[in-house]
Amino acid sequence: MRVRLVAGLAAFLMMAASGASAAPCSNAAGFPAWLANFKREAAADGISARTIAAALDGVGYDGSVVKLDRGQGVFSQSFFQFSDRMVAKYRIDQGAAQIRKNRAVFDRIEQRFGVPAPVIVAFWGLETDFGANMGDKQTVRSVATLAYDCRRPDMFRTQLVAALKIIDRGDLTVQTMRGPWAGELGQFQFLPDHYLNYGVDFDGDGRVDLLRSTPDALASAANYIVSLGWKRGQPWLEEVRVPANLPWEQADLSIKVPRSQWAGWGVKRAGGGTLPADGVTASLLLPMGRNGPAFLAYPNFDIYTQWNQSLVYATSAAYFATRLNGAGAYARGQGNIAVLSMAQVAELQRLLNARGHHVGGVDGKLGAATRAAVRTEQQRLGLPADSYPTAELIAKLKTGG
Ligand code: CA
User: Fold this and answer.
1) Which terminal CB of the chain, N or C, has fewer other CB atoms within 10 Å?
2) Ligand 1 mean position to 45 CA, how many Å?
3) Residue 215 C-alpha to ligand 1 middle, in angstroms?
4) Given a cut of 90, is residue 6 above it in pLDDT?
5) What pLDDT shows up at residue 1?
C-alpha cells in the first residue's frame, strides 16, 4: 500500500497542528527540540503519558531512513515485467495453498464482509509474500524521523500519532511494532492510521495484531477493501478478446459502459464466448496497449487503484486474484511490445505539456493524466487511440505532427 494517500481529514488536522513547530528539519541537530514539542502535543492529543514515555523517551533520529526516503525508486516496470515477476506460478500455488489452509477463516470473512478469498490473498502475496516479508525496523523511530524530516512532515506526523494510539490501545508494543522504513505494518503493510481505523480483532483475543494474527490481518484487509467500496458478489476483472476495429478511444478507466455495448463492439470472453448483453458496466483496460492483453475492469476494480495508485500494481493484483479464482493466464498478444524508458516518458511529458496538456510534473512516470493526453494526441494524429505511448508517437510530436 505504499503509494496510498493519507486519509484526508486526519492529515488536515495534523497539518494545522504542526504549523506551530517549524524546526531545522534537514539534519539531526534539531530533532531533540522537535521531539520535546511533539511529546507535549501528543499528550494534548490524548495519548497516555506511559505510552509517550515508552515510545519516545530516548528515541533517536535515524539518518538511514531519510536516505532511503530520498533514494526511493519510482515505479517504472511494465505490466508484463511486474506481473511476470509478482504473479509467477510459485506465488499462485502458494496463494492457493493459503486459501486451502485458512478456508474456515475465509468463509467467515466472506460471510461478514463479502470479499472473496482470492481478492484478499492476491494483496497478501504482493504486499508481504503472505506475511513472510514484513520488515524489521522499529516503526516509531522511523516514523518519528520522517515526521521531523522536511519532506513530508504532515503525513508522517499523522502516522506517528496513529502509531502511538495503536500502542496505547494495547495492540502492539514499541518493541513488537516493526516494519519497513516508511511505517507500513503487518501482513498487508497498512500505514498506522489504516491499522488504527480499519484493523479488526478477528481471532477474538481482544487485540488487533496485524503482524502475528493471520485472522486479524485477513479480516482487516477485507474491512479496508469494503471501506473502499467493494460490492459483494460482483466481478473485478475479466480477460477478454478485442477485435482489431475496436473504437480504441473507448479503452480508458474513466469510461464505463454496459457490457452489452462491449459485446456490440465485438468484445468476447477470453475463451471466445459471448459476453452477457446486460447492463453491468465495465471499462476496457489495455495495460500494454492494443497489441497486448485486454481486460474488462468492473466497478470493483476501483478498489485496486485506491489500494495502490500504480496502475501496473493495481492491474497485477486484480489479475492475480482472477488466477486464484480459477481464470487462466492472460494472452500476451503480439509478444514484443516496446516499453518506453523513463527518459522517453519524461520527453513525452515535456512534449505533451508543450502542446497545452497538463500532465503534471515531468517525472517519467506513466500516470492517468499522461495516458489521457496520449489518447487525445493519438486521436488528433489519426493513430489508434489506445492511450499506450510509443516511440512513434514521440517522433510525431517532435516533428510538430
Ligand atoms: Ca486479535
Assistant:
1) C
2) 26
3) 8
4) no
5) 55
Mean pLDDT of 310-338: 92
Number of Cβ within 10 Å of residue 328's Cβ equals: 10
DSSP-derived letter for residue 299 is G
CB 157 within 8 A of CB 14: yes
Q: Across the chain, which distance is largest between two alpha carbons, in Å?
A: 67
Q: Where are the domains of the chain?
A: 237-324, 342-398
- Angstrom distance (rounded) from CA 239 to CA 51: 50
Q: What is the mean pLDDT of residues 175-180?
A: 97
CATH number of 237-324: 1.10.530.10
Query: What is the 199 CA–ligand 1 centroid distance (Å)?
Result: 9
The partner residues of 285 in beta bridges, in order of sequence, read 295
How far apart CA 212 and CA 287 sit, in angstroms, is 35
Give the residue carrying C-alpha cell 459485446: 263
CB of 287 closer than 8 Å to CB of 312: yes
Output the nine-digit C-alpha cell for 203.
481471532
pLDDT at 333: 81
CA-to-CA distance for 7 and 196, rounded, in angstroms?
12
| Residue recorded with cell 514484443 | 336
Cell (9 digits) for 161: 500519532
Rounded distance from Cα 212 to ligand 1 centre (Å)? 9
Q: Tell me, in angstroms, the distance from the centre of ligand 1 to residue 165's CA.
A: 16
Give the pairing type, strands 178-179 and 237-241: unpaired
Contact 307, 4 (CB under 8 A): yes
Cβ neighbours around 135 below 10 Å, total: 18
Task: Give yes or no for a contact between 260 and 278, defined as CB atoms under 8 angstroms apart.
Answer: yes
Residues 379, 370: Cα–Cα separation, whole Å:
14
Grid cell listed for 174: 514499541
CA 376 to ligand 1 center in whole angstroms? 51
- CA separation (Å) from 14 to 19, 42, 53? 9, 11, 21
Residue 169 cell numbers, joined: 490501545
Ligand 1 centre and the CA of 206: distance in Å?
6
- Which candidate, 316, 299, 312, places its Cα nearest to that of 232? 299
pLDDT digits (tens, 9 = 90+) for 376-392: 999 999 999 999 999 99
